[in-house]
Amino acid sequence: MTSHTRGFGVLVFKTCKTLWHRDVNASKNMMSIAPSIWNQDGHPTAFQRI
Fold it and tell me: Which domain of life does the protein's organism represent (predicted)?
């Protein structure tokens, strides 16, 4: 039995009732990265490949 339910880009964890929406998370990431790129500082450390 899984601890989560998935459907159409949405993931809901049953135990903690957390909802993850793929498009919302992607837009939050873009809002973090864009200013850094525009200021020519490169990607923030959290978004850099190792």
Answer: Eukaryota
Burial per residue of 17-34, b for 16 or more beta-carbon CB atoms within 10 angstroms, e otherwise? eeeeeeeeeeeeeeeeee
Q: What is the largest CA-CA distance in the chain?
A: 47
pLDDT tens over the chain, length 50 residues: 466 555 567 888 888 988 888 888 889 889 989 999 999 998 888 888 87
pTM over 0.85: no
Nearest to residue 20, comparing CAs of 4, 3, 33, 34? 4
Chain-centroid distance, C-alpha 44: 14
